[in-house]
Write a structure and sequence with these properties.
6-stranded antiparallel β-sheet, SH3 type barrels
């Protein structure tokens, strides 16, 4: 409906992190401050509503700051679904006490994943599958944005109806991603690479890179394991899984799973840490494909320092 230039004074009422102005226009409080930009005020206090409220964190990792605004330093983080209690300031931040504040724009009055039905269109056909991940996350809805409600060990037989988004509806509000499922029991596989799936050498490095490129531009999501958002090991697991290679879920587990090699070839895994805290796909010539961290997309980039080893899983 319009824009306001920096320094414009606005008045209105705060609700759910937005300022409602008298003429029915709204502006996000995340771009507002209680003092004119460039002012000398240093106080971290802000007028509050006086009413204590309970909220839940909706961001994967919500920044806690030393004052009610993004100009203040980050003093900690709170994971998704954390329950927080405090007093809302007039600029839409929640005062947690002890000089700690969190933005109202990443809070909700109900626990994430519990207010809306997590149902999704299904194929209508019940199928039987087996868990291929070392520990497969079961979630409250068909996507990684829903909370984890349990785990199933490798080889567990599951029955349900596949949703059109590629998740298996186990019933009872429980879902598991089909990227960590197989139509054959992985524990009964003989030969091939550890954990079953494609046989050793049957998938080329070029094929791995071609599959990995398909997901360039997808933003990092902590705990993400499908194209709605990836973390580092969720990305590698998904890419290899699309080619029939069933990698475990975490970077450390993938490090144990892969056969160590001293000289990497395109398609090999690259690890940082022992146990690994980050994993990528080697692209050749000192480059990698990876989902690096919050704020970065899946991309090809120069391999950074600190590599602790390489592994082959194809």
């Amino acid at each position: 409906m319009g824009t306001l230039s920096r320094g414009t004074e606005v008045k209105g009422t705060i609700s759910n992190g937005w300022l409602k102005m008298a003429d029915g226009r709204y502006i996000g409080t995340s771009i507002l401050t209680t003092t004119a930009p460039g002012g000398t005020g240093t106080s971290t206090t802000s007028p509050s509503t006086g009413n204590e409220v309970t909220r839940y964190v909706t961001a994967t990792n919500g920044n806690v700051r030393s004052g009610p605004g993004t100009s203040y330093g980050v003093v900690g983080t709170l994971p998704r679904s954390t329950e927080v209690t405090g007093t809302l300031t007039s600029n839409g931040w929640l005062n947690l006490g002890g000089g700690r504040y969190i933005s109202g724009v990443i809070l909700t009055s109900t626990a994430p994943g519990t207010t809306t039905s997590p149902t999704a269109p299904s194929t209508g056909t019940e199928v039987t599958r087996y868990v291929t991940a070392t520990a497969g996350n079961v979630r409250s809805g068909p996507g990684t944005s829903y909370r984890v409600v349990g785990t199933l060990p490798r080889g567990t037989q599951v029955n349900g109806v596949l949703t059109t988004s590629g998740w298996l509806n186990l019933g009872g509000g429980r879902y598991i991603s089909s990227t960590i499922l197989s139509s054959t029991d992985p524990s009964s596989s003989t030969g091939g690479i550890p954990g079953g799936g494609a046989s050793a050498g049957s998938v080329s490095g070029a094929a791995i890179l071609a599959e990995g490129e398909k997901y360039f531009g997808i933003m990092y999501v902590w705990g993400g394991e499908d194209p709605s958002g990836f973390d580092c090991s969720g990305y590698t697991q998904y890419v290899f899984g699309r080619l029939g290679i069933n990698l475990p879920r975490t970077a450390a587990q993938q490090q144990q799973f892969a056969t160590p090699v001293s000289t990497p070839q395109p398609g090999d895994l690259v690890f940082w840490g022992a146990p690994a805290w980050h994993v990528a796909i080697y692209a050749g010539d000192g480059y990698i494909y990876d989902s690096g961290r919050a704020g970065l997309p899946v991309q090809k980039r120069k391999m950074f320092s600190g590599v602790t080893g390489y592994g082959r899983a194809h």
